[in-house]
Every structure is written in C-alpha cells, then in structure tokens.
C-alpha cells in the first residue's frame, strides 16, 4: 500500500482570481492552462504537537518480595536545553519594490560541508534540503547567469510549500527522495480551489480525475512535465518527490518566468507566478531575507 501525505489548503489562500465564484474545469488543451496552473501553489502548514513520552523503570528492592514498576515522565528529568525556534520577521514590502537581502556568496566546494552545517544550525533548514537549494542555485548560476536566483529564495519557497519536505512527518532522505510522498488536495473546483482536470493520467499524483500538486515544492503535473529537471544528470526521469530535482526545477521555473531575479520586478514576477498572492510573495520574501541574514552570521 502506498502511503502519501495529503496537503490541504489553508483558509484565506485562494488559487486564482476566480476562486470566489464557480470555476470551470481547466483542461490540458486550454490556452491558459499553464498560466492558471502556474499561479496555484500551497500555503504553509503547521505540524501538530508531539505526544508525551513515558519511561517505565523496574526497581527491584533487596528487602521487597517481588518487583515494582515505576512510571516516570521524561518531564521530571533534568531539562534538556531546547534550540530556539528560528524566527522569521514578517516583512510587508510592496510588490516589485525590493528583493530580499544579500545571502552572501555561494560556498566553495572545500568549505561547502562546513558552511551547510553552520547555516542549517542557524536556521530551520535541514542540511539535506539546504544542500539541494545551494546546489540548485550554484548550477543555475552557471547555466543561466542572468537569472541571479539565490539559494535563499529557493529555500524561501521550500519553507512555505512544505517546511523543507517535512510537512506532516515527511522527510528527505540522503538520496534526496521524500518519504512519505507529499501530494496536494484534488483541484476539483471546490470552494476556493482551482479546477484542473487530470493531465497525467495519475502518473505523478495518483489521481486519474483531477490534478494535484506534488512534491516538496508543490508542482502541478503539467508544469512539472514542462520544466522538470533531473539534478543529478544521471539520465533518469525528473522526480518531483526528490528534493534535488524539485529545487533545481524551482530555479529553472522561476528563471523562465521572472528573468532577472536580481531585479525587484523580476523577483516578484517569478514568485507571484508560483502563487498569485501578495501575501504569499511577502511570506517568501520574509523567509529568504531571514535566511540570508542567518547565513551571514559567524
């Protein structure tokens, strides 16, 4: 049995300008299909609280006949220091007025591992996801230097879309594959949801009737088919559930849609194509700006 993580839409984050009224199904042959699908992405989610852990200790007394079981809460032990939650100040720049702060130069290969470990520790980004973002930005700088997309912007998208592949208990393994797979809700025209008729016969999202966004970066199947990249270059098909492929595809997609992301107009065009919402753009901006500042800390 295939286990997948389903992402549900957060209230208040709609998918298209028409979400407040009836939305006609979009088919693969519709002229505006890609533009409509490009505008749809997921809003951030929060994970539920962890359960309480109990420890059972067997105490055997030399003068006591039999055994006594004692249940001790871990909360009764010496408290363990907890790493402070990474805080992202909520910034509200007007669209196309600014870009996130400088994230600094990409680390050279000999120092990359140490840099990733430091930045991962300074932020909420798992090292495996951070490596994918850095590699995607690095490769894009070589193939499309005019784009100027930063790892921090890619990470900003990753945080909003799936908490860096950690939505609802998923995680990216050392091979980059996210388990359980992350699959969005059916785009069936329900209130606040864009209607997108199936375009891939369920190959990527398991749904032969309606399309669903897939992977840690939440791409629709038709968008993935057009922009998907295999980051490793090993000849295998791009996998939206692979954090390396997803990060690389995000860079390619945003560069294609925004042009020069070193310019406010280009940056905002790219991000708003991912999700046509000022609130979404401001959230990604805030994420990227905070990550850039954290990376520059000693």
TrEMBL record:
GO BP term, example: peptidoglycan catabolic process
Keyword set includes Coiled coil: no
Segments passing through the bilayer: 52-72
Coiled coil ranges: none
MF GO annotations: peptidoglycan lytic transglycosylase activity
Spans annotated as Disordered: 7-30
This protein's record includes keyword Transmembrane: yes
UniProt KW keywords: Membrane, Transmembrane, Transmembrane helix
CDD domains the UniProt entry points to: Slt35-like
Ranges of compositional bias, category Polar residues: 11-30
Protein name (database record): Membrane-bound lytic murein transglycosylase B-like protein
């Amino acid at each position: 049995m295939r286990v997948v993580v389903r992402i549900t839409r957060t209230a208040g984050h709609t998918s298209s300008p028409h979400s407040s009224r009836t939305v006609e199904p979009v088919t693969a042959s519709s002229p505006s299909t890609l533009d409509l699908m490009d505008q749809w992405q997921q809003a951030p989610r929060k994970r539920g609280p962890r359960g309480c852990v109990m420890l059972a200790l067997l105490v055997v007394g030399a003068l006591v006949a039999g055994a006594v079981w004692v249940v001790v809460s871990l909360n009764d032990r010496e408290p363990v220091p907890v790493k402070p939650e990474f805080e992202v100040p909520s910034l509200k720049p007007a669209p196309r007025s600014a870009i996130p702060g400088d994230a600094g130069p990409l680390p050279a290969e000999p120092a990359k591992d140490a840099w990733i470990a430091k930045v991962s520790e300074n932020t909420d980004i798992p090292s495996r996801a951070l490596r994918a973002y850095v590699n995607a930005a690095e490769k894009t700088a070589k193939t499309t230097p005019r784009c100027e997309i930063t790892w921090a912007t890619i990470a900003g998208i990753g945080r909003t879309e799936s908490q860096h592949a950690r939505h609802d208990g998923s995680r990216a393994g050392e091979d980059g594959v996210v388990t359980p797979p992350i699959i969005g809700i059916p785009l069936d025209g329900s209130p606040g949801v864009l209607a997108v008729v199936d375009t891939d016969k369920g190959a990527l999202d398991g749904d032969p009737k309606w399309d669903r966004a897939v992977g840690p970066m939440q791409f629709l199947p038709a968008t993935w088919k057009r922009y998907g990249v295999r980051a490793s270059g090993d000849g295998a098909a791009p996998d939206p559930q692979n954090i390396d492929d997803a990060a690389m595809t995000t860079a390619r997609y945003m560069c294609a849609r925004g042009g020069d992301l070193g310019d406010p107009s280009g940056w905002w065009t790219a991000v708003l194509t991912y999700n046509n919402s000022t609130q979404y753009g401001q959230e990604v901006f805030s994420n990227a700006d905070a990550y850039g500042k954290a990376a520059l800390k000693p």
